[in-house]
Amino acid sequence: MQTLSPTQPMEHLDDWDDFVATRYKEGKDESEFRNYDKLANPGVAEFYRLNHTHQTLDFVLARKKEYLSLTKGPKSIWEAAEYLNTLVDDSDPDTDLSQIEHLMQTSEAIRKDGHPRWFVLTGFIHDLGKVLCLYGEPQWAVVGDTFPVGCAYSNNIVFPEFFAANPDIKVPELQTKYGIYEPNCGLENVHLSWGHDEYIYFATKNYLPESAQYMLRYHSFYPQHKHNAYRHLMSDHDVKMFDWVDKFNRYDLYSKGSAKPDIKALKPYYDDLIAEFFPAKINW
Ligand code: FE
Ligand code: FE
After folding, report:
1. Of 58, 129, 147, 196, which one has the fewest beta carbons inside 10 Å?
2. Which ligand minimizes its atom distance to the CA of 106?
3. Does 205 have pLDDT greater than 90?
C-alpha cells in the first residue's frame, strides 16, 4: 500500500481535479456521486480530512492578509505559467498532463467552441493560483472544493463528516445558517476556504471582465455551482454571474483527454492574447 505523507497526502496535486471530474462525470445522478469511496481514494480522502480540519475562518483571514498584498514579486502571465510548470510530482509523464498542458487543453476547448478571447484567456490562466504550492503551502491550502467559512457547513460539501475536527465547529456564532454574514449579502462579502481560486482572481482582477473574475474566483466552489447550497448568501447579481461559472466549469472538468496541445506551436497565439489584456508583468 502506498504510504501517505502527513502534509501532502495526494501523490499528485491533480488527483483532486481527477476526483472531482469522476464525481461529476456527465450522466451520473446525484445519488451516485455521493458514494465516493474512501478506500479507493485514500490519498484524496486524507487530503479532504486535512482541508476540512484546518480551513478555519482565522486561517482564511491570515492567508488573505499574507497573499493578497501581492508581494511575491512581478511576473508576466507566461512566466507564471512556466513557474507553475516546475511543479513536478510523482506523476507519469506519458499519461499525465503538465500544468501548462492542462491550462491549454482547457483554453483550447473554449477557443474551439468560438467563445470570446477573454474567455479563452481565462481558461489559460485559471489554475495559475496553484503556484501557492511552490510558496510552500500544503495541498489542503491550494486545491479542494471551496466552501464558506464563518457559517454552517453544508451537507453538500464532499466528506462533511470531516468538519467535526474543525475548531470552528465549537463556536456557535460560526455555525448558524448565516453565521457572521447577512442574508443574501453577496459573495464578495463571504470568505471562502483558502486556495488557488481566490489568489488568481485577486492577482488578475484589474485586467479582466467581471464574468472572467467570477469564473476564476468560484471555479472550485462546487457546493454552490453543482448543489446550489449557498443561495442564501448570494445576491441576485451573483446568481446571474454564476451562469458564467457554470459555462466555464464544463471546460475545466471535461477537457482532459483531448489531444495534448502543442505548446510551442500555440505560444504565439497566447503571447498575443495575453498582451491584449495584461501589461508585461503583474504583481503576484
Ligand atoms: Fe482549479
Ligand atoms: Fe483546472
Report:
1. 58
2. 2
3. yes
Q: 134 and 84 in contact (C-beta within 8 Å)? A: yes
Is the pLDDT at 54 greater than 90, yes or no?
yes
| Nearest-ligand number for the alpha carbon of 132 | 1
> Which ligand is the nearest neighbour of the Cα of 103?
2
Question: CA–CA separation, 99 vs 84, rounded Å?
Answer: 7
**Does pTM top 0.70 for this prediction?**
yes
Q: β-strands 282-283, 74-75: how paired?
A: antiparallel
Ligand nearest to the CA of 196: 1
CA distances from 49 to 12, 46, 108 (A): 17, 5, 34
Our separate counts of H helices and E strands in the chain read 12, 2
Looking at the CA of 102, name the nearest ligand.
2
Distance 183 CA to ligand 2 centre (A): 30
Question: How many angstroms is it from 44 CA to the middle of ligand 1?
Answer: 16
- Contact (CB, 8 A) for 245 and 225: yes
The answer to whether 171 touches 58, Cβ cutoff 8 Å, is no
Protein residues with C-beta less than 5 angstroms from the ion ligand 2: 127, 252
